[in-house]
Design goal:
Number of helices: 4
Oligomer: single chain
Number of domains: 1
Strand content: 5-15%
CATH topology: Rossmann fold
Number of strands: 2
Structural class: mainly alpha
Radius of gyration: 17 Å
Shape: globular
Order of helices and strands: HEHEHH
């Protein structure tokens, strides 16, 4: 689902990308959990303080990603002053692997604008 997105078939994604994502995912499963390391809850939660962020913020999503991710990306775009969001077409969650040249270019463009 993360690699293909909800609306594409596996045949619509570069097989090299699918294989690399599979290798990365298997590596993560094989290494196991970080024993004894628990996520630390923030109080108040960071999501309630997005309007306090004063750092240049860049949000990049692929238009074929799952709907939840697309909706999640809308929130910092709306709540962080001056945030910039770019949607890369024909990509899902691993957009930097599917469209590396376009991904690199939008990142470089953002950095050059600072």
């Amino acid at each position: 689902m993360w690699t293909d997105g909800p609306l594409r078939s596996s045949g619509q994604v570069d097989p090299t990308v699918r294989q690399r994502v599979r290798e990365m995912t298997m590596h993560n499963f094989e290494r196991g959990d970080d024993e004894g390391v628990e996520p630390q809850e923030l109080e108040p939660p960071a999501a309630t303080r997005l309007d306090a962020i004063q750092t240049p913020t860049f949000i990049i999503v692929g238009d074929e990603d799952v709907r939840t991710i697309l909706l999640v990306a809308d929130r910092p775009d709306a709540e962080i002053a001056g945030a910039k969001k770019v949607v890369i077409p024909n990509t899902a969650h691993h957009l930097n692997m599917e469209q590396p040249e376009q991904f690199n270019q939008v990142v470089l463009d953002f950095l050059e604008s600072l």
